[in-house]
Automatic annotation (TrEMBL):
Organism: Acrocephalus arundinaceus
GO molecular-function terms, A-Z: gamma-tubulin binding
Gene coding for it: Cep70_0
Main location per the UniProt record: cytoplasm
Protein name in the entry: Centrosomal protein of 70 kDa
GO CC terms in record: centrosome
Taxonomic classification: Eukaryota, Metazoa, Chordata, Craniata, Vertebrata
Amino acid sequence: LLKVLSRIDSILQSPRAPPLIFRPSKGPVQNYIKENGQGCGFEHLPLTIEMWADQLVALKDLHRSLRKLSLELLPWNTRDPQDNRESIRVEDLQLIVDGILEELEHKEKNSQTQSLQTLSAIVSHFQKLFDVNSLNGVYPRMNEVYTKLGEMTNAMRNLHELLELDSSAPPTVVVDTVGKLCDIINKNVTEQVQQLLGTQDIHSIINKLEEHECFFPPFQALIQDLLCLLEISNVDDILPAVQNLK
């Protein structure tokens, strides 16, 4: 028995052994054992072995949990399906962890490849939309589109404020409102021209304009001659100058 205990003790104290949670006490009981010669340095072995037994049980539970995780991430992997084996080794756990890590790395590489394909498709779509022939022209066209978009946004914001429209009003509402304002202005201008020329139809307006076109050139020439003859420069001075000649 002493040989077995010595062998176990040497295993526990070897560099490969895990750190011991239990340490021999230094109280009166330990001193009593040493004084009576009953202590052999193996008093901590039962608790240490019990702790190792618990760790072996926990190792089995950990193996079961890793198996469940592996089945979630790798449902096609059916290796080592039995969780009720008598002995579970650390190598078994490491194998499961390595398989999970390998699959995660593979998925990460695939996601990066898909991202590159997605980015390439986005660039190609941008080139088609904005008529860009080469990759070198993508960035300048992006800057141009960004600038134009900013100008259009500012213009729409100013129009919303000028027309007293809600900021959420779509561009079609802005265009319709501007069109209505143009119709109102054109109508007012037409009415003012009609009132000025004393006519209500377009043909009369044309006739009036033709009459004025025939009348004003000779009238303008007469005025210029009078200004030169009377040696004055202002039209308002013509009448007083003619009256002085009487």
